[in-house]
Write a structure and sequence with these properties.
The complex is a heterodimer of chains A (about 270) and B (about 1100). Chain A is α+β, with helices and mostly antiparallel strands and about 270 residues long. Helix content of chain A is about 20%, strand content about 30%. Chain B is an alpha+beta fold and about 1100 residues long. In chain B, strand 3 and strand 4 form a beta hairpin. Classes of the chains: A alpha+beta (about 270), B alpha+beta (about 1100). At the A-B interface, helix 1, strand 2, strand 3, strand 4 and strand 5 of A face strand 1, strand 2, strand 3, strand 4 and strand 5 of B.
Chain lengths: ~270, ~1100
């Protein structure tokens, strides 16, 4: 046996990198904040041009969306590009509720190249998609109901009924209660339902309730004994890495699961239709 | 069950989304330009060292009125009164409705006053007289038009008090969301909002927002109503001015003498003196229809293209173009009838008319070009576009007119086949439609409508199917992938099985975790079998490679081959590792136990005792037997001494055996299986037990109690024994089963068959609705769909021109009621035109469909039809359609034979009632339906025809579902703005009028009920009325604004005195009971919960100002008889 080293010894590894400041800076960037308008609502307004570089102005209807593409959240990252994270490798973003009465409505997704954040074997790199959807931020809005008001008052609809018969004899019944079956039917023809914005017009244009829809790929963490789902939370991962991340965490918590779990497409899950 | 009585609910304000987070109050001058909310996020990092957190805080400004420079007019669904109404009642309040429920408050830069339930809207309604303002002239650089208050007026006098604007906007909901007995107001915001949300989810059309003007109008005066910004920032933005940074966000637009106001929307109306609902209903008079209505002359003399014109002398060079309605034959006189007949039968004699033959040739040219060169085809048809003055003009193919309905009828030619033989039948609907100019024109209208609205309809058509293109692309790619994989599978994977099942098993090992067999994965099955998983692993494959070093070195023979190794392991011919054995020289517990057993006892006794412990009792049994024998046989047959010796011997034997047994047990107690916790309990107790060192001579004495050391020792021993037992159990290996290799391979091959796996994977991600699935069947093919539209298609036709819908429509008299009938042929032609053109459009836009769908089948608007049969939505829609699907039209049927309503067996006489009147201008959505009348009777129960009849009262289940013999709502309707309405009723005039009532059993006939449309209430106060206020409907202007004069505003401020209702004393036993007031009692029972006072909110204001709508029931005998 022999061992020989030659050439100049050089440390080619890049210095590790602090990720928290990067993420913080990303979340503070104005272009990463936007206000979404709820789907059913039509804005119907002409808005004045605003110098968006000077000020962050959000539309009061709808939700606030904060998202970034520097590093995925809720995923243990091994690296950023080719640098090791120094301060932390698993990030979460939460909204401070408290007096602001704000809460998280959903997590936003962005496309991330997994090879940039995970140490993957060459075969894994080849077999996994180049980009995957990963959690990247939050959508926040008001806690509880989206709507607010104070109280309601009802008014029962009674008609002044005038009956004309026999040579224009006239009988008046004040406060004649109108039954609701016809009330509901006749609501159908009121000005609202004639509006082009109305649900009725929309239904006339789109009478079918269902459409052809494409679902995103979904993955399941399942037992490899019979492909049954590991638990209820493990059935709807939108990406392979996300499912893998979940699996790794479970194994870390319960080492007995080592070699007992695997990630499969949802259609292969036991009991999947 | 739904509520039995229609109910409205009002909300004082409504806000949505992040604007709910604004904390600054209204009129807070420290907030400049825009309101802001503070958002704080926490970023947490974990995983390396201690967790780290960072806070990201941001003050987020919200769009405010200063950022709005326009409101789309479609956001406004209604203005009351309508634009250019000239007889609005001056005691009513104008208002404007918005589709979005939260729009009036959306941009208000302030938080609501939750204690009073008030929030100022950011827009308001200014209603000005013509002399109070002038239009802004210079509109350069101004995003909105504006008006200027004339110098003799003050803006603050013409606008409502700025701090009270909260009162003049509210949300209107057409359903009860209060849901309280004995109260009309519900302050439990959560439950209210929950119900509100439920209403919106059910149908968003049920709620909208409204802004009311609180100005008292003068009679007979013209007014302009403007929708203007409330806040100064909004005013500046509308005028195109910069909003200075020092502007308070909530400063009002008319705070400090401003005179220019931009407006988002405006309309004009005049107040009148007469013109209430009943008055307008009474104006309506039955009139015969002018005979010109429904027909229009159409010049047909020179069609061009060498086609002979229709120049028959008696026709005068014209045909009569109809509309969707026509005058019923019975209302025509003999001369008119003859005229109609002449024009209807213009082509009867002879058929086909030369014009028709030529037209057919022209249409057929398109098909001729398929087999002939253009000049030949043109020559043959006799149609030419050749320039007669140019001898060198070569004949090009011509663009031929469309053959309407060709895809639906699957027809390529008219009158003549390619070979010249006649087509039969030649007078069916497709020939009529295509060869009669009257119907071709109608079809052309349909074409025009589709062309005008193609973007909208195509957008909806794509919207109906969702992601069909992407889905189809996926399906195509999947088909490709399936077939490509299939080849690979067949060529490379299937043959492996022929080489050997084991080879196939090894080859498929990487996917075995994902393949199920017998309820578990193949991987799991292999793991539980005699075949170790390692034999399927990659290193093993490497080792067994034919050329490998090991393989070359090992000797193989016929039955021993690398290829059958797995099978041999499975059959236990080969063991991956030899079975475990205890080495002979190792001392074991068995040896120890054996050594402890007594030596001086014969082996057979030891064996017998360990196998059958009961043997020790055998001597006792012998004694017992002996004693019994002695008793039975007498004591004499054996000498007593012998008996005694036998008993003594047996007793000795018993003692001996017991001792041996005990020794054996003691020896065996060291065996592993006997080291149980229970065994410790059996150990003797010793008060002086102690643990001694090796070699120390000490023998504990056996006693009744244990020394502390003994107790500890026994505890330890017990634990140790437990461990021994558990580890023994854990160490037991499950019996490994042989693997059914063939079954596993079969399951795996099935599981990786690309014909199954790929479609399963892809189709699992594509959701195809049932109705499309029915079209394409179950095969794995691309989806196609027929879009469908339920839009009443008369509307777009009217939008082009009401003259196309009904020629000479303006000859319908003002304030008249008349009768027409549908012109089915026209409607069918128009509908074919629509469908034909849309099919072309779908083809052009590469919509995945064939051209045979019936996309438009609704001509009239059937939304007023009462679903008495309780049909589900789909069946109801089908029932109300005007034509059957086009591809089902029989080739032998005539144009006009395809009335879908009749086809369903409802042979209804469809009289169409036409109403034109001032009523419909002012109340364009008035409801009209028929209600069965009943006679009043005298004491004898006989008909009393001196009294007016009354509408039949509905009771019980009829209220929920009124039967058609009591209530008839229109089968269909149509409206031509501004003031003409068409209703299709299945009721004849005579039946509606009923009988005189002079004879018993006379038919009471029907009432026509005309009423204000639900969902469109009106607000106002009474003009006069000195009496008490028992219900809020009695409230007058004078009472609310003492000394009111025109132009004043209703005010609600801290000085507003309370107004209370006077109890009408409804209890009949009450001494103050007044029968006159009984009719108000029910209303009073609700009104008493609301008071007019300084702490009201907008919903309460709306409640009080709400005016009871009017319903006029007028008997058909009054309405349809000329007065």
């Amino acid at each position: 046996d022999f061992s020989k080293t030659w050439g100049e010894e050089k440390d080619t590894t890049l210095p590790s990198i602090k990720v928290m400041p990067i993420l913080k800076a990303e979340f503070e960037k104005m272009e990463n904040w936007e206000a979404n308008i709820p789907a059913a609502n039509n804005l119907l307004m002409t808005l004045r041009k605003i110098d968006t570089s000077a000020d962050l102005v959000l539309h009061p209807v709808g939700q606030l969306k904060i998202s970034q593409r520097a590093a995925p959240l809720l995923l243990t990252i091994d690296k950023i590009g080719s640098q090791k994270p120094e301060d932390a490798n698993y990030f979460t973003l939460t909204v401070d509720g408290g007096s602001q009465e704000l809460e998280e409505k959903a997590k936003t997704n962005e496309m991330f190249a997994m090879g940039q954040f995970k140490d993957l074997s060459d075969s894994k790199k080849l077999s996994s998609p180049a980009y995957e959807k990963k959690k990247a931020g939050l959508e926040i809005s008001v806690k509880g109901k989206q709507l607010k008001t104070s109280g309601a008052v009802k008014r029962v609809v009674r008609y002044e009924q005038i009956i004309i018969d026999n040579n224009f004899k006239r009988v008046v019944v004040k406060f004649f209660s109108f039954f609701s079956s016809l009330f509901t039917l006749f609501l159908n023809g009121n000005s609202t339902s004639k509006s082009v914005l109305s649900n009725k017009y929309l239904k006339q244009k789109m009478p079918f309730e269902e459409k052809i829809t494409l679902k995103t790929d979904e993955y399941v963490v399942a037992f490899n004994t019979d492909n049954s789902a590991f638990n209820d939370q493990s059935t709807t991962f939108t990406s392979y890495t996300e499912a893998e991340e979940f699996m790794d965490r479970q194994v870390k918590m319960n080492p007995n699961l080592q070699d007992g779990l695997h990630v499969i497409p949802q259609v292969e899950m036991k009991g999947a239709a | 069950m739904s509520d039995l009585i229609g109910t409205y609910s009002f909300l004082p304000w409504l806000r949505q989304g992040i604007a709910n987070n604004i904390k600054s109050a209204d009129m807070d001058n420290s907030v400049k330009v825009r309101a802001a909310v503070n958002v704080s996020l926490t970023l947490k990092g974990e995983g390396i060292g201690a967790a780290k957190t960072e806070t990201i805080a941001r003050n987020v400004a919200l769009y405010g009125p200063g950022d709005i420079t326009g409101i789309e007019s479609k956001a406004i669904i209604k203005a009351e009164p309508r634009n250019w109404i000239t007889n609005f009642e001056p005691n009513y309040l104008p208002y404007i409705d918005f589709y979005d429920e939260d729009l009036p408050w959306r941009y208000t830069p302030a938080a609501p006053d939750t204690s009073l339930g008030r929030l100022r809207p950011w827009i308001m309604l200014a209603v000005l007289k013509e002399e109070e303002f002038e239009d802004g002239k210079n509109i350069t650089n101004k995003p909105l038009p504006y008006f200027k208050i004339k110098s003799s007026f003050n803006a603050s006098d013409l606008m409502p008090p700025k701090e009270q604007l909260w009162a003049w906007a509210h949300v209107h909901i057409n359903q009860d969301i209060v849901k309280l007995e004995n109260a009309v107001e519900n302050t439990d915001v959560n439950s209210v909002l929950q119900r509100f949300q439920a209403v919106l989810n059910k149908d968003p059309d049920l709620a909208y927002s409204r802004i009311v003007s609180p100005r008292k109008l003068a009679p007979k005066t013209g007014y302009h109503a403007f929708l203007i910004p409330v806040f100064e920032s909004g005013r500046l933005a509308g005028l195109g001015l910069d909003v200075p940074a020092a502007t308070s966000a909530t400063a009002s637009a008319w705070d400090s003498g401003q005179i220019e106001f931009p407006y988002y929307y405006r309309w004009y109306f005049r107040t009148g003196t007469v013109g209430d609902f009943e008055y307008l209903v009474r104006l309506l008079q039955p009139k015969p229809v002018d005979s010109r209505v429904g027909r229009r002359d159409m010049d047909v003399q020179e069609p061009g293209y060498n086609i002979s014109g229709i120049t028959d002398a008696d026709l005068g060079g014209i045909l009569k173009l109809g509309g969707a309605l026509q005058i019923p034959e019975e209302s025509l006189n003999a001369k008119e009838k003859a005229e109609v007949k002449k024009y209807d039968e213009w082509a009867e004699n002879p058929y086909p008319h030369p014009f028709q033959s030529d037209l057919a040739s022209f249409i057929n040219l398109a098909d001729d070009y398929n087999e002939k060169e253009a000049p030949d085809a043109n020559q043959g048809s006799g149609i030419s576009n050749k320039d007669p003055n140019d001898p060198n003009d070569t004949e090009d193919p011509m663009i031929t007119p469309p053959l309407y309905g060709r895809w639906h009828a699957m027809v390529e030619r008219l009158l003549e086949e390619r070979d010249g033989s006649a087509i039969s039948p030649d007078k069916n609907w497709i020939h009529q439609l295509n060869l009669d100019p009257r119907w071709r024109v109608a079809a052309g209208f349909g074409t025009k409508v589709v062309q005008d609205k193609q973007e909208e309809y195509m957008d909806a058509a794509w919207g109906q199917v969702g992601e069909i293109l992407e889905a189809n692309r996926k399906i195509r790619l999947t088909q490709f992938a399936t077939l490509a994989s299939r080849v690979f599978y067949n060529k490379h994977i299937i043959p492996l099985r022929q080489i050997g099942m084991e080879t196939a098993l090894v080859f498929t090992a990487p996917v075995q975790k994902r393949i199920m067999a017998q309820g578990a994965t193949v991987f799991h099955q292999v793991n539980g079998s005699l075949v170790p998983y390692a034999t399927l692993s990659a290193p093993m494959r490497r080792i067994l490679r034919p050329g490998s070093r090991l393989m070359r070195m090992l000797p193989f023979e016929a039955q021993v081959q690398p290829g059958n190794l797995i099978r041999r392991i499975n059959d236990e011919e080969v063991f991956p590792a030899p079975p475990k054995k205890v080495p002979e020289t190792v001392p074991t517990l068995d040896d120890l136990a054996e050594g402890l057993k007594p030596d001086n006892v014969p082996g057979f006794i030891k064996d017998s005792l360990s196998q059958s412990p009961w043997l020790q009792y055998l001597p006792l049994f012998i004694i017992l037997l002996l004693v019994i024998l002695l008793f039975i046989l007498g004591f004499t047959w054996l000498p007593m001494s012998a008996v005694g010796a036998l008993i003594a011997g047996s007793l000795y034997l018993f003692a001996y055996l017991r001792r041996v047994k005990q020794r054996l047990e003691d020896a065996e107690s060291v065996l592993e299986e006997n080291q149980e916790p229970e065994a410790v309990d059996k150990l003797p107790k010793s008060h002086d037990f102690k643990i001694t060192t090796m070699g120390e001579e000490f023998k504990p004495t056996i006693g009744n109690a244990d020394s502390p050391e003994a107790i500890r020792f026994k505890t330890a021993l017990r634990d140790t024994y437990e461990l021994v037992q558990l580890s023994g159990q854990a160490g037991v290996k499950a019996k490994l089963k042989p693997l059914d290799i063939n079954l596993m391979v079969a399951a795996t091959y099935k599981g990786i068959d690309p014909m199954i796996t790929i479609p399963r994977l892809v189709l699992g991600r594509i959701k195809i609705p049932a109705y499309i699935f029915e079209l394409i069947g179950e095969t794995f093919t691309e989806a196609m769909a027929y879009p469908e539209f339920d839009i009443p298609m008369y509307k777009p036709l009217v939008d082009i021109s009401s003259e196309l819908f009904l020629p000479n429509i303006n000859h319908i008299e003002q304030n008249s009621i008349s009768l027409l009938e549908t012109n089915q042929q026209f409607i069918e032609s128009y509908m074919v035109g629509l469908n034909h053109e849309f099919a072309r459009e779908l083809l052009w836009r590469e919509y995945p469909t064939d051209q045979r769908g019936s996309y438009f089948r609704q001509f009239w608007d059937p939304s007023g039809y009462l679903n008495t049969g309780k049909l589900d939505r789909k069946k109801l829609k089908e029932k109300l359609r005007d034509i059957p699907p086009l591809h089902l039209w029989s080739k032998f049927s005539k144009l006009g034979d395809h009335d879908h309503r009749e086809a369903q067996g409802d042979k209804e006489e469809e009289a169409v009632l036409v109403i034109r009147g001032e009523l419909l201008k002012k109340y364009p959505t008035a409801v009209i339906y028929a209600h069965r009348a009943e006679w009043r009777t005298d004491q004898n129960g006989d008909i009393d025809n001196k009294q007016e009849r009354k509408p039949v009262e509905l009771k019980g289940a009829d209220l929920e579902n009124p039967p058609r013999d009591k209530i008839k709502t229109p089968l269909y309707e149509a409206k031509v703005d501004p003031d003409i309405y068409f209703f299709g009723f299945d009721i004849t005039i005579d039946a509606a009028k009923g009988d005189s009532g002079d004879n018993p059993g006379d038919d009471p006939g029907w009432f026509f009920v005309i009423k204000e449309r639900p969902g469109e209430p009106r607000f106002g106060l009474d003009i006069d009325g000195q009496g008490d206020i028992n219900v809020w409907n009695d409230l007058t202007w004078e009472k609310v604004v003492p000394g009111v004069s025109d132009g004043d505003f209703i005010g609600i401020d801290s000085n507003t005195p309370a107004i209370n209702l006077k109890d009408p004393h409804c209890d009949p036993n009450d001494p103050l009971h007044d029968p006159q007031l009984v009719e108000k009692c029910e209303q009073y029972g609700e009104d008493k919960f609301i008071n007019w006072n300084k702490n009201m909110n907008a919903a309460e204001v709306a409640y009080i100002l709400y005016q009871v709508p009017v319903l006029v029931a007028i008997h058909a005998s009054e309405m349809l008889s000329e007065k």
